[in-house]
Amino acid sequence: MGRILVADDHDSLRRGLARALTEAGHETVEAANGNAAIACLHEGHFDVVLSDLKMGGSDGIEVLRTAKALHPSTAVIVMTAFGSVNTAVEAMKSGAFDFVQKPFEIEEMEVKIEKALEMRRMANELDYLRHTQNDIYEFDRIIGSSEALGKVLAVVRKVAKSNTTVLVRGETGTGKELIAGAIHHNSLRAARNFVRVNCAALQENLLESELFGHEKGAFTGADKQRIGRFEQADGGTLFLDEVGDMSANTQAKILRVLQEHEFERLGGTRTLKVDVRLIAATNRNLAAMVAGGQFREDLYYRLNVVSVDMPPLRERKDDIPALADAFVRRFAGELKRRMNGIRPDALKMLLRYNWPGNIRELENAIERAVLLCEGQEIGVADLHLGETALAAADGGPTVVRIPPAGIPLEEIERCALVEALKVSNWVQKDAADLLSISPRVINYKMKTLKIEPPKSRRELAAQADANE
Ligand SMILES: Nc1ncnc2c1ncn2[C@@H]1O[C@H](COP(=O)(O)OP(=O)(O)OP(=O)(O)O)[C@@H](O)[C@H]1O
Ligand SMILES: [Mg+2]
């Protein structure tokens, strides 16, 4: 059943049509002329629009164009007077789904509406299929047979089928997003969307529009209607990534929807109710943040129903050979290089290293090695481990030297930040990446530690950050 707009200035025809369609189980809205129809289209979303071609106010072609511009997936069926084939052709060229000539039997219209609704369902399905085709979240993409990973996967398999909210915790690069995706794709919601929201990147002023969507004209710059993340995830899963990096304001707003399950699009009047399953992920210690007052306790308890802890790679070194091998094969394929694998001494080095950046760091190291390696096997010299990372285990180079007289930790932090910024040409985002912190955090730390770029660099960095 669908939501249908019936636009015709012929009162009895319009009412009769609307009544019949309502009786058939559709939700119908009537518009007595073109302008009223266009106003309705701005108000909300319709699956099908039935529009007379010749009406008072704006005519049917304008209604059709507005419908296609605002909601491209809406099917428009135009009704034409007997004999006006030319206008019907014009309507089809402008994107009408179909047309009927007046007078028509209500059954004929019902068949066309059913066809339109069916097309929409198929289009949605196709969209979804395309989405899963290049899906990166399948279980069999999760490599590793270590006990630590096995424990995680056992929990994941258990919770996947339920609707339980899951909090995935773990250091950067441990595979939190991969696991979140695997939970979705093994759930009963797998046929619907998996929608990721990067909470660290949410701008407070655009937050509502991003999450809830907006109607055209809701604010300056809102030149198109936008469907928010919650709506996109309806029936599926909403993945709140980097959930520990939200401002207090953002936390409050998110909590409100999670409690009420409903919202309006900005500038819209219809209250939308959605059914989403939540998965959240963070590399922060949320419990400590709650204790320290940086994270709302009520939100924490709402998100942390079941938690999954991703073990760092150094605690599942058994998985390194299989992971490294898979990455070699993948990058050899992508970079069109013939590779036989990794030499034993190089593998030993991979096993010895402590991987502060976890699997992502391993992935990057292998990509670089495949790219730079001269022969067909990766050797020790092709691996540049830990160049940007802190102290390696087992007597690796020490990054920080403590002077005999001691030094405040804050001073070390300051040095690290300045060094990372210099290496990154004072582009904060890049420096943040080097230090595995979010741009928000580096910005905050620069303010509190009063670190300023050298004058000549300031404009350059501002420009680069603006281009991000
Ligand atoms: N077990 C695994 N098998 C294969 N690839 C993996 C595995 N775990 C992680 N990866 C890969 O490592 C990379 C990092 O994983 P992912 O993005 O899921 O980590 P994350 O914990 O979300 O990291 P961050 O905290 O930085 O966002 C991805 O490219 C992912 O495909
Ligand atoms: Mg992630």
Describe this structure in words.
The longest helix is centred in the N-terminal third of the chain and has 28 residues, at about 105-135. A hairpin with a 6-residue loop joins strand 11 and strand 12. Helix 16 crosses helix 17 (about 430-435). The protein folds into 4 domains: about 5-130, Response regulator (Rossmann fold, 3-Layer(aba) Sandwich), CATH 3.40.50.2300; about 145-310, 3-Layer(aba) Sandwich (Rossmann fold); about 315-380, Helicase, Ruva Protein, domain 3; about 410-465, Arc Repressor Mutant, subunit A. The strands form 5 sheets. The chain has a 5-stranded parallel β-sheet with strand order 2-1-3-4-5, with helices on both faces. Strands 7-10-13-6-14 form a 5-stranded parallel β-sheet. The protein is α/β, with parallel strands linked by helices and about 475 residues long. It starts with a strand and ends with a helix. It has 19 helices and 16 strands. Residues about 390-395 have low confidence and may be disordered. It is elongated, with a radius of gyration of 28 Å. Helix content is about 45%, strand content about 15%. Magnesium ion binds next to helix 7.
